[in-house]
Design goal:
Blueprint (H helix, E strand, L loop, with lengths): L1 E5 L3 H12 L3 E6 L14 H5 L1 E4 L2 E6 L2 H9 L3 E5 L6 H4 L3 E4 L16 E5 L11 E3 L10 E2 L22 E3 L4 E5 L6 E2 L4 E5 L2 E4 L4 E6 L5 E2 L4 E6 L12 H16 L6
Parallel strand pairs: 1-2, 1-6, 2-5, 4-5, 6-7, 7-8
Antiparallel strand pairs: 3-4, 8-9, 10-17, 11-13, 11-16, 12-15, 13-14, 15-17
Helix pairs in contact: 1-5
Length: 263
């Protein structure tokens, strides 16, 4: 059973980990220059580095849909630079999971595969997906929705260690992103995490830097470029989050509900 996951950021990677461990073959797609923040737990890094290992699972960049299929069949997560999902008609997967997390549907259609699952806001069951999975932290996180839509985007990050929006760092200006720290580093509020167009992006709270955009990307002012974890557990920076695994569990439930079994 081949599953195409649109997106290869941290939530999409959590989904891929769960599905791969359950026996599914996985092909993921993302931007040619990925904008993932939690890069140490994102299979999107395979596009930039050629290969990426998260926890105990390896991903490798593929140049064509045919190469991606061969990799997936060999037990490796394949990652394609294919933001529009052009590979889907060629691969003819048993299921498509849209985990781009764009807060809206960027082109996934109900007809893309026998089973289509939307992750997060922007999807309506029966219109553009067969099921959707809730991504909002709280009581319904990871719940599968078989009728209706996930909770609309609030624009406010979920609470971790007592902090929500405060733990997110945003670009102070438009320009080229220049990181000054490494993911996993302990930081203090007010320290310079990166520079954009000569302006510093300051750490907002004390904690562990668990996410930082890659060097050299051109970013607009106000773009999310970093994430600080106030719990100060460095190991969290190199493991899929509780949220990603909860969402991954929801996707697994939905696949099994519709009869999409690994064999």
């Amino acid at each position: 059973m081949l599953v195409v996951i649109r997106g290869a950021g941290d939530l999409a990677t959590g989904i891929a980990l769960r599905l791969h461990r359950a026996g599914y073959q996985i092909v993921m797609t993302d931007l040619p220059a990925p904008t993932s923040i939690r890069r140490t737990v994102c299979f999107s890094e395979a596009i930039r580095l050629g290969e990426m290992t998260v926890e105990d699972i390896s991903a490798r960049k593929a140049e064509t849909p045919e190469e991606a299929l061969t990799l997936a069949q060999s037990g490796v997560v394949a990652v394609l630079a294919d933001p529009v999902g052009a590979c889907i008609p060629t691969l003819r997967p048993g299921a498509v999971v849209d985990a781009i997390l764009a807060k809206k549907n960027l082109g996934t259609a109900l007809t893309d595969a026998p089973v289509v699952i939307g992750v997060g806001p922007g999807f309506t069951v029966g219109i553009d997906c067969h099921a959707a999975v809730e991504t909002m932290r709280g009581h319904t996180l990871g719940r599968v929705i078989y009728c209706g839509s996930p909770i609309p985007n609030t624009g406010v990050p979920g609470i971790i260690g007592g902090y929500g929006a405060e733990r997110v760092m945003r670009s102070p200006a438009a320009g080229v992103f220049e990181p000054k720290m490494e993911i996993g580093q302990m930081v203090k509020a007010g320290e310079v995490a990166a520079v954009v167009n000569g302006q510093p992006m300051l750490c907002t709270i004390d904690g562990c830097l668990r996410g930082l955009l890659q060097e050299g990307l051109t970013v607009p002012a106000g773009m999310k470029c970093g994430d600080i974890d106030p719990r100060c557990q460095q190991s969290h920076c190199f493991q899929a989050s509780d949220k990603a695994l909860a969402v991954g569990g929801g996707v697994l439930e939905a696949l099994l509900h519709f009869g999409c079994r690994p064999d």
